[in-house]
Design a protein that fits this description.
about 325 residues; Rossmann fold; about 20% strand
Length: about 325
C-alpha cells in the first residue's frame, strides 16, 4: 500500500518504521533540518522498552502535492501545527483518505475546513496513537507497548459513522503489531483524552518539567486526580459522552489505582518519556489545548476548584 506519513516527530517516526517494515510503500514528509538529518542519517529509533535501535532508509518529501497519489495519508503533527497544513490537505486532489492523529478538541471543525476547501469529498478519520518519547540529537527515543518494534496502540474512528475506510486501515497495519481500536464516538474520545492529560500537564509545569519533585507529594497527586474529575464533569455538563464509558469512574471510583499510576509515572523514567518530555517541548500545543478546554469550562459553568488552582501553572510556561 502506498502511504504518506506527515510529521517526522516521535509518533510519525514510529508509524513510518512500523508500516515500512510491514511491507508498505511508505514516504515520510519532513522539512528543514529534520529533513536534512533524515536524508543523511536515516530514520533512527531507540525502542526504549524493547532495548533495540533501528535505522531505516525511507523516501522523504517536504510537501504533499496536489497530484500526489497515496492510498492513505497519516497526519501526525502537534495540534498547534495542524492548522497550517489544512490548505495543503484540502488541495491534494489525488489523495482522498486521511487519518489525522493527535490531540484535537475540535475535530469536527478541522474536518469541515478540509472538506469545504476540497474539490472533491475526502474521507477523514481522527485518532490517537498511544506511544510517546522524545527526540535526542536527531534520534527518536520511543516508548511503546509490546516486545516488537512494530507495536503500539491506536484509537481511531470517523465522525459521521462511516466505516467504509476501516478495511483499508486494517490492511495497512495488518503486518505491524499496532493494536487498532475503532471507536464510534471518536470526537468524545479525543475530548476525554485531553481531560485526562491536561491535569498531568499542569503537574509537569508545576514541577518545572521534573515529575520526581511531586512523586512523594500525596496531597498534590490527589489534587491532580480531583482536577481530572472536574474536567470530565465539564465535558458531561456540555453533553459530551464519556469515552471510554468508565473514564470518570476510573478517577472517581478507582482513585487508589489512578493514584498509583500517577505516582509511578512521577517516580520513574516512564513519566519523563510519556508525559513531561512532550509537555516541555510542545508548550505551544499544550497552550492550544488548554485554550480549547477553557471554552468547554466556560460553557459548563460548574465549580472547579482543583482545576482553578492548577491551571495557574499555564501562566508561567
Amino acid at each position: 500500500m502506498k502511504i504518506l506519513v506527515i510529521g517526522a516527530g516521535v509518533l510519525g517516526s514510529l508509524l513510518t518504521h512500523a508500516l515500512l517494515r510491514a511491507g508498505n510503500d511508505v514516504t515520510l514528509m519532513a522539512r528543514g533540518e529534520r529533513k536534512e538529518w533524515l536524508l543523511k542519517n536515516g530514520l533512527m529509533i531507540r525502542h526504549w522498552l524493547q532495548l533495540r535501535t533501528t535505522c531505516d532508509r525511507v523516501k522523504i518529501v517536504d510537501r504533499l502535492g496536489e497530484t500526489d497519489q497515496y492510498d492513505l495519508v497519516l497526519v501526525s503533527v502537534r495540534r498547534d501545527q495542524l492548522d497550517d497544513l489544512l490548505d495543503q490537505l484540502s488541495a491534494a486532489r489525488a489523495s482522498i483518505l486521511f487519518v489525522l492523529l493527535g490531540n484535537n478538541m475540535n475535530a469536527s471543525q478541522t474536518a469541515s475546513i478540509i472538506q469545504q476547501k476540497s474539490e472533491g469529498k475526502k474521507t477523514i478519520l481522527f485518532g490517537f496513537q498511544g506511544t510517546a518519547g522524545r527526540r535526542e540529537n536527531g534520534k527518536v527515543i520511543s516508548i511503546h507497548s509490546g516486545f516488537s518494534t512494530l507495536g503500539g496502540k491506536m484509537t481511531l474512528g470517523s465522525l459521521d459513522g462511516d466505516e467504509s475506510a476501516y478495511p483499508m486501515i486494517k490492511e495497512a497495519f495488518a503486518k505491524t503489531k499496532f493494536k487498532l481500536e475503532f471507536n464510534p464516538n471518536i470526537d468524545a474520545w479525543l475530548k476525554c483524552h485531553v481531560a485526562f492529560v491536561m491535569p498531568i500537564c499542569f503537574a509537569v509545569y508545576y514541577a518545572h518539567g521534573d515529575l520526581r519533585k511531586i512523586a512523594g507529594d500525596k496531597k498534590f497527586i490527589h489534587k491532580v486526580i480531583d482536577c481530572m474529575d472536574e474536567a470530565y464533569c465539564m465535558l458531561q455538563a456540555c453533553g459530551i459522552a464519556m469515552e471510554p464509558p468508565d473514564s470518570l469512574n476510573y478517577v472517581r471510583d478507582n482513585r487508589s489505582s489512578c493514584y498509583r499510576l500517577l505516582r509511578i509515572m512521577a517516580a520513574t523514567p516512564i513519566g519523563k518519556l510519556a508525559a513531561s518530555d512532550h509537555a516541555m517541548t510542545a508548550k505551544g500545543e499544550m497552550q492550544h489545548l488548554y485554550k480549547d478546554f477553557c471554552v468547554i469550562k466556560t460553557k459548563a459553568n460548574i465549580s472547579t476548584p482543583a482545576w482553578d488552582e492548577l491551571e495557574k501553572t499555564m501562566v508561567d510556561i
